[in-house]
Amino acid sequence: MVEVIYDKVTGRSRGFGFVTMSTAEEVEAAAQQFNGYELEGRALRVNSGPPPPRREEFSPRGSRGAPALGASNRVYVGNLSWGVDDLALETLFSEQGKVVEAKVVYDRESGRSRGFGFVTYNSAEEVDSAIKSLNGVDLDGRPIRVSVAESRPRRQF
C-alpha cells in the first residue's frame, strides 16, 4: 500500500509518503533499489522505518471515546515553537508511554519548522493518556495542541 502525504490547506503533495511492504526483506530490497532513484527530475530518498506496531482492529467510532477502525497510534502536536525539535518532543511525550517515533515537520525549502509534528506510540491507550495529559501544556513558551492524528486518504498508484 502507498500513502502520499498532502498539505491540508493546499491539497498538494508534501513531497513524501510511506509504502507498506509484506516482509522486512522486501523493505530492505526496496530501500536499496530505490534510494537515489530519479523520479520526475528528483532523486528519491528511501529508507526503512520500524515496522508498524501490531494492534487489534477496533469497531467504527460509535460510542463516545471508542477508537475508530484502525485507530491511529499517532498524535498530532500543534503550536510548536520554532526551537522544538524531535528530541524535545520525544522527551516530553515519553512521560505518557513508549514513544516509537517523534517527528517535527520542517519546510522542505527553508528547513524551518512548520510548527507541528507527530508522535507515535505503541497503543491507543498511550495516545489517550498523552492527549489528556499534554494538551495545552507549555513547551518552550507555547501551549501545545495535542489530538489524534487524522489519517489522510491513501492514494493508490
Automatic annotation (TrEMBL):
<feature type="domain" description="RRM">
    <location>
        <begin position="73"/>
        <end position="151"/>
    </location>
</feature>
<keyword id="KW-0694">RNA-binding</keyword>
<dbReference type="Pfam" id="PF00076">
    <property type="entry name" value="RRM_1"/>
</dbReference>
<keyword id="KW-0507">mRNA processing</keyword>
<keyword id="KW-0934">Plastid</keyword>
<dbReference type="GO" id="GO:0006397">
    <property type="term" value="P:mRNA processing"/>
</dbReference>
<dbReference type="InterPro" id="IPR050502">
    <property type="entry name" value="Euk_RNA-bind_prot"/>
</dbReference>
<protein>
    <submittedName>
        <fullName>RNA-binding family protein isoform 2</fullName>
    </submittedName>
</protein>
<dbReference type="GO" id="GO:0003723">
    <property type="term" value="F:RNA binding"/>
</dbReference>
<dbReference type="InterPro" id="IPR035979">
    <property type="entry name" value="RBD_domain_sf"/>
</dbReference>
<feature type="region of interest" description="Disordered">
    <location>
        <begin position="42"/>
        <end position="69"/>
    </location>
</feature>
<keyword id="KW-0150">Chloroplast</keyword>
<dbReference type="InterPro" id="IPR012677">
    <property type="entry name" value="Nucleotide-bd_a/b_plait_sf"/>
</dbReference>
<dbReference type="InterPro" id="IPR048289">
    <property type="entry name" value="RRM2_NsCP33-like"/>
</dbReference>
<keyword id="KW-0687">Ribonucleoprotein</keyword>
<keyword id="KW-0677">Repeat</keyword>
<dbReference type="GO" id="GO:0009507">
    <property type="term" value="C:chloroplast"/>
</dbReference>
<dbReference type="GO" id="GO:1990904">
    <property type="term" value="C:ribonucleoprotein complex"/>
</dbReference>
<feature type="domain" description="RRM">
    <location>
        <begin position="1"/>
        <end position="51"/>
    </location>
</feature>
<dbReference type="InterPro" id="IPR000504">
    <property type="entry name" value="RRM_dom"/>
</dbReference>
